[in-house]
Amino acid sequence: MADKLPVMESFYTIQGEGKNTGKAAYFIRLGGCDVGCTWCDVKESWPAEAHPQLSIETLVEMATAEKARNIVITGGEPLMYDLTALCAALKAAGFYLMLETSGAYPLSGQFDWICVSPKKFKAPLESVLAQADELKVIVYNKHDLGWGPSFSSHLKADCLKLLQPEWGKQKEMLPFIVDFVKEMPEWQISLQTHKYMQIP
C-alpha cells in the first residue's frame, strides 16, 4: 500500500460534472498518467515525477481543514497507484469518497461513488466498468457517440450513463448529443459547469 502519493494539486471547490454537480468537494489530483488523451486539459499531470510526494497523513490534514466532507480523487490516472491506505484514512476521517478514472487500471480502495470515463487511447478494464456508478463518455467527435455506448453491456443496471462534450468542441458536438439523448433517453447530458462558473 502506498503511504505517499504524487500530488499535482489539491483544492476545495464545487464539483462541476456528473451526478454530484454542485456539491462542495475537496479535490486531490494525483500526478501520473499514461492514457494520453490528446485533448486532456491537465496534461501537466502526466509526468508523476514532476509532482511532490505527499503523505496520506498530510492529505487528510489538508482535506479536513475544509468544511465539506466530500472528496474527489482524480488525476492524471489515480488507479496507477494503490489507493487502499488513502481511502481507509479518508473514510476514518468521515469523508464520502468519489473516484474519477479512465478505468484502465484495476480498482483499489473503497469508494462511495465511482465515475469511469473511458478513453480510446487505453481501454478500460471490464472489472472496473462493472463497478462504475457513473459512466461519463467525453464526446470529441461524432464517432464517440457510437463508441461510448458500446460499454453499456459491461455496466450494472443502475449505472448512470452520461455524455459530456469536450470543452473545446462543445458548440459543435452539443447538437449531436442532444439528438442522441432524445433517441436514447437512458443517457443524460453532463456539462462542465465549473468552467461556466470559472472556478477550478
List keywords for this structure.
200 residues, alpha/beta, TIM Barrel
Descriptive report:
It contains 6 helices and 9 strands. The protein starts with a strand and ends with a helix. It has one domain (4-197): TIM Barrel, CATH 3.20.20.70. The mean pLDDT is 95. It has a 9-stranded mixed β-sheet. By secondary structure, the chain is α/β, with parallel strands linked by helices. Helix 1 (56-64) packs parallel to helix 2. 22% of the residues lie in helices and 26% in strands. Helix 5 links the parallel strand 8 and strand 9 (187-189).
SS element count, helices: 6
Largest sheet: 9 strands, mixed
The CATH superfamily is identified as Aldolase class I
Record field, number of beta strands: 9
Order of helices and strands: EEEHEHEEHEHEHEH
Unreliable stretches = none
* Average predicted confidence as pLDDT: 95
- How many separate domains make up the residues? 1
CATH top level assignment: Alpha Beta
Based on Cα principal axes, name the global outline: globular
Strand content: 25-35%
CATH architecture: Alpha-Beta Barrel
Q: State the end-to-end distance.
A: 30 Å
Rg result: 16 Å
Estimated helix fraction: 10-25%
| Biggest sheet, spatial arrangement of strands | 3-1-2-4-5-6-7-8-9
Structural class: alpha/beta
User: Could you name the CATH topology?
Assistant: TIM Barrel
